[in-house]
Write a structure and sequence with these properties.
255 residues; mainly alpha; Cytochrome Bc1 Complex, Chain D, domain 2; 2 domains; 13 helices
Length: 255
Amino acid sequence: MSKDTIKNFISLHKKKTGLPFLAGMLLAGLTASSFAVNTDPDEFEEAIKLKPDAENGKNLYKASCITCHGPEGWGVPGSGYPQIAGQLKNVVIKQLADFRAGNRDNPIMRAFASRRSLGGPQEIADVAAYVESMPMTPHNEQGFPIHLEEGKAIYDKLCADCHGKQGEGDPEDHVPRIQGQHYSYLTRQFNWIRNGRRRNGDEKMIKQIKNFTPREQTAVLSYVASLKPKKTAPPGWRNHDFDNFDRSWRPMRIR
């Protein structure tokens, strides 16, 4: 992502949210690459063990997450912003660690995951627990229904052992919940893992997907997007923690 793109993103967010952190980045002329990695592995092991403070997690979510992922945590279908609601707490902690370490290639997320923005182990635990507590949308972006049967066969053979039979993930091994995720986001991450841009990809997975044909990829990701989580929001639900948030606001598309 270019420096100009990041500045435009910050400018838009400043107009919509007035976040002081973003304004400070712009005034200081900082880009995400300016942040030191400064990652302590023990910090994240500690975060997993801490008792989270849900109220503080809500405040941290509002300060650092809501503008891109939305007040419900459902992301924006087709834009590159994933649904994070309902993601396993330990997975959120692990991914924040990887953003801080530069193992995931997203300058904006790396900035918001930095100590300057998020803080230390307790804050990581707090926001991760709040994210996990949010119900998922039952109306995520779908793929191509005609491929679901083929996709299920591929998933059951190659993916279910790690991600679970229904894509529910594994908190102990930090394997993410992928059920009910937006199809376009699944596609982008699949491609980034395969080509090495997402540097925290599991080696076994990289070998498995390396030679997938476009049809196989479409099939299995369509099937994953079709998997429905047990905990979804009821019809018409909205997160009353953030009633005053402008729900018409959408962040710019990630390419």
